[in-house]
Design brief:
The protein folds into two domains: 157 residues, no CATH class; 74 residues, no CATH class. Helix content is 52%, strand content 11%. It contains nine helices and four strands. A four-stranded mixed beta sheet has the order 2-1-3-4, sandwiched between helices. The chain is globular.
């Protein structure tokens, strides 16, 4: 989907779209979280009020719970491949459109506006019913702000299902495809599984990489070395 396409659905006065799966939702649906339900309908678990200042760890935990529920639905419906396509499409849209990022993160948008926007976006992007349902529910719960973490968690679950692991790599500059493949090959030799690279760029690192696979982390950055050297000099002084 083009930047202009995302931009068009990420603003007010949007196309009205109602997903048929929601007609079977129980009373009080707007105050519920996500869990698998019959026929792909998302059911009810109370998760309380939303605090926009909540710690990142809480947001990540909520994203993980949503992701596991959605992934279970996809597994039961044998639609994991479709879900992976949804993940890639949404990650690309988030990277391409500041309007979409604003839509999911700004408190100025009402729940109704967010739900209309993501429903129109999901329809235009031809996302799977499970993903459409999940986005609409998150909008009703004011949880669209965890969309990036939600997608990352889904990607990890999909990788685990295929016997793969994801390496979170932070580099001072973007790596070429060849460099990523070489790194993935080296990591595979270490962890014994196929490795997917989740790359982020942080120019403050100056050079080198920070690689995290599960609980293991390798920091080869110049910034880290300089910091260690500075601490060592303080100890000597």
């Amino acid at each position: 989907m083009s930047h202009e396409g995302v931009k068009a659905v990420a603003r007010g006065n949007l196309l009205c779209y109602t997903h048929a799966d929601f007609r079977a939702q129980p009373a009080g649906w707007g105050n519920t979280a996500l869990r698998p339900g019959p026929a792909g309908v998302l059911g009810a678990i109370s998760i309380g009020r939303v605090d926009v200042s909540e710690p990142a760890s809480i947001s990540t935990g909520i994203a993980e719970r949503y992701a596991r529920a959605v992934f279970e639905l996809a597994r039961e419906g044998k639609s994991i491949k479709a879900l992976e396509a949804d993940i890639a499409a949404l990650e690309a849209a988030l990277g391409d459109s500041t309007d979409l990022v604003s839509l999911i993160s700004s408190p100025l948008h009402t729940r109704a506006q967010q739900r209309l926007a993501v429903s129109a976006l999901a329809e235009k992007m031809a996302l799977s019913d499970i993903m459409k349902n999940a986005l609409a529910l998150k909008a009703s719960k004011r949880r669209l702000n965890v969309l990036p973490q939600f997608l990352a968690a889904l990607r990890r679950l999909a990788a685990e299902e295929k016997g793969e692991v994801t390496a979170e790599v932070t580099a001072a500059r973007a790596l070429t495809k060849a460099q990523q493949q070489k790194l993935a090959k080296a990591l595979k030799a270490s962890v014994g599984k196929n490795v997917n690279i989740d790359l982020a760029v942080d120019e403050s690192l100056i050079g080198g990489l920070v690689v995290k696979v599960g609980s293991k982390m390798i920091d080869t950055t110049i910034a880290s070395r300089l910091s260690n050297l500075q601490n060592a000099m303080k100890e000597v002084g």
